[in-house]
Amino acid sequence: MNILGTSLRVCVSDLEAAIAVYERLTGAEAQRFRRGGVSVAAVGCFFLMSGPEAELSVLRNITATLAVTDVDEALADLLAVGAQIIAGPVRTPIGSNLVARHPDGSVFEYVDRRAG
């Protein structure tokens, strides 16, 4: 698998205030989207997330999001090393993702940008 980069997850209570801080720190403009009931802003290498605690508590368990060339290739490699697939792979109009627990217990989301 080819890991292209990593995004860090930050849960915040005030998304607008956090966006201003992270835009200033990274020099990047926020890209906003929703994931279920959670509002997300991608700013540089950060995913800022705000929403209902029940949904955030699930997302907090994911250490980081890893961009990969191909989620299907990542799936094969993850299974080969004994990872547990928690969710996915899920195809979306902009790519695919899956969530896996590594044998050491760490949980990561893997995403690609290949249209589903």
Automatic annotation (TrEMBL):
Report the coiled-coil segments.
Answer: none
Q: What Gene3D superfamilies does the record point to?
A: 2,3-Dihydroxybiphenyl 1,2-Dioxygenase, domain 1 (3.10.180.10)
Q: Which domain of life is it from?
A: Bacteria
Start and end of every Glyoxalase/fosfomycin resistance/dioxygenase domain?
Answer: 9-110
Family matches, as InterPro entries: Glyas_Bleomycin-R_OHBP_Dase, Glyas_Fos-R_dOase_dom
Protein name listed in UniProt: VOC family protein
